[in-house]
Amino acid sequence: MREAHSGSLIVTGGKGGRREPLPQLDDRPTQPLRTVRPGPRPSTPSAPVRRERPRLYAIDGIRLVAALMVALHHYVGTYRVNQPHNAIWGRPVSDIMPTVFHVATYGWIGVEIFFVISGFVICMSCWGRTPRQFFTSRVMRLYPAYWFAIAFTTAVLVALPGVWDRMRPRDILLNFTMLQAGSKVGNVDGVYWTLWSELRFYLLFLVVVATGLTYRKVVLFCCVWGAAAMLAPVAKFHLLELIANPEGAWYFIAGLALYLMHRFGQDLLLWGILGMAWLMGQRELGLRIDEVEHVSGWRGSVAIFTVFLLVMVAIALGATDRVQWKWLVTAGAMTYPLYLIHYVAGTTLIHRLKDTMDARLLVAVVIVGFMALSWLVHRFVERPVAGLMKRGLDTSFARLRNAGS
Questions:
Q1: Of residues 61, 123, 112, the one with CA closest to residue 314
Q2: CB-based contacts of 339: which residues, under 8 Å, 6+ apart?
Q3: Which residues are within 8 A (CB) of 325 and not within 5 positions of it... i.e. 6 or more apart?
Q4: Any signal peptide, and if so, which residues (predicted)?
Q5: CA distance 140 to 150
Q6: Contact 130, 142 (CB under 8 A)
Q7: Residues of 114-151 as b/e, b for ≥16 C-beta within 10 angstroms?
Q8: Are 90 and 82 in contact (CB under 8 A)?
Q9: How far is CA 335 from the centre of its chain?
Q10: Backbone dihedral region of 186: left (phi > 0), alpha (psi from -120 to 50 degrees) or beta?
Q11: Rounded distance, CA 60 to CA 169, Å?
Q12: Per-residue pLDDT averaged across 22-38, rounded?
């Protein structure tokens, strides 16, 4: 407890509180100084202390696995590709490769894995940063590959029609803002729906970043956001539901709690937040199966999600610190372009090439091809464009500061 010593008067009892001067204190010791040996401190709770950790290469590896799960699901594991006379394979994919189909039906969980990792990584990368730095880093990370993906996918749809409908030019142009969902305009590629959830998470977390990230503030943010996500569906208040994002909130919250475990160590409160996120997350998995996927089972989905969370706990607590494979950094960097470009363009290629080779080989060739293209996008689009954007944004924010002074 801190004690105040700034005053020079004391108030004594009696009516009106008579003020008397404090006695003057002599700075000189009245007896020789003694050396005091520290004894055992009382066992009082202390604030969480940051623990230094090396780079988490394992997370880059999980990113790549999640991206490959999603790609395999879209090619051979969706409800659409298992319908008779579907536009991609021409017949149910379960008739072509039944084992691969049943495995791939669970690949959509890679999206939920991405959300958890996003909560972890955003909290990690934003610690100690200003709102300006947060904004700049997100723009640099999201937009260059996204702009390329829109142009690439549109070009594929023009060159190879017949599988997917092409959008109107004005709607394609609106997609470049990444805000098309707010205007109820469709996506050039269906996978872009996840970016709308990411943007809403960034907007909410920016409020905490603006006040300065601390253990207490992030825990409070998790609790408040979780409460809003639980109340939004029953409140029937559209704006609250839009902001709270109940479909994705608990995955991001799980990532935030995991990062706090990584930075400060585990405690009962963080385990409670993670447990609540798992309980709410398993319900959201069931809802997505019932309303969107229609191909996988709840038990299998929850099992995969649970194993993933346990792996993330192990990573957060340092069990994978010895994993120092440098190539995982490149693998992690490829996942975002791979996710953005694989679906519409990939299924269009499969439609065109399905009769030219074995179906399993075709899927493998398409995935490897898009992985190679993703590396090229990262190397020759993301990195140079991100550098230009950073310099431009830094100059713009400097002008804003100077204009306000």
A1: 61
A2: 67, 70, 71, 114, 191
A3: 57, 61
A4: none
A5: 16
A6: no
A7: bbbbbbbbbbbebeeeeebbbbbbbebbbbbbbbbbbe
A8: no
A9: 13
A10: beta
A11: 36
A12: 39
Task: Grade residue 49 by pLDDT with cuts at 50, 70 and 90.
Answer: low
Q: What is the pTM of this model?
A: 0.86
Residues 249-285 pLDDT 10s: 999 999 999 999 999 999 999 999 999 999 999 999 9
Confidence of residue 39 (pLDDT cuts 50, 70, 90): very low
Take residue 117 and report the two structure tokens written for it: 């990792």
- Residue among 316, 320, 213, 224 nearest 271 (CA): 316
- Percentages helix, strand, coil for the chain (3-state, rounded to 5) are 70, 0, 30
Q: Count the neighbouring beta carbons within 10 Å of the beta carbon of residue 329.
A: 13
Q: At 78, is the secondary structure helix, strand, or coil?
A: coil
Q: Distance between CA 322 and CA 2 in Å, rounded? A: 42
Instruction: Give me the long-range contacts of 201-206 (CB less than 8 A, separation at least 24).
Output: 201/118, 201/119, 201/122, 201/245, 201/248, 201/249, 201/252, 202/122, 202/134, 202/138, 204/243, 205/122, 205/123, 205/126, 206/131, 206/134, 206/135
Q: Distance (Å, rounded) from C-alpha 363 to C-alpha 378?
A: 22
- CB–CB of 106/73 below 8 Å? yes
In angstroms, the CA 22 to CA 9 distance is 5
Amino acid at 164: W
Report the chain's mean pLDDT, rounded to a whole number.
Answer: 89
As a whole number of angstroms, the distance between CA 125 and CA 323 comes to: 20
User: Does residue 10 contact residue 3 with C-beta atoms inside 8 Å?
Assistant: no
What lies within 8 Å, CB to CB, of 161 at 6+ separation is: none
Question: Could you write out the three-class secondary structure of 190-253?
Answer: HHHHHHHHHHHHHHHHHHHHHHCCCHHHHHHHHHHHHHHHHHHHHHCCHHHHHHHCCCCHHHHH
CB atoms within 10 A of CB 212: 11
Residue 106: Cβ within 10 Å count: 22
Q: What percent of the chain has pLDDT over 90?
A: 83
Cα distances (angstroms) measured from residue 353 to each of 89, 343, 361 = 10, 15, 11
Place of tokens 């000189």: 28
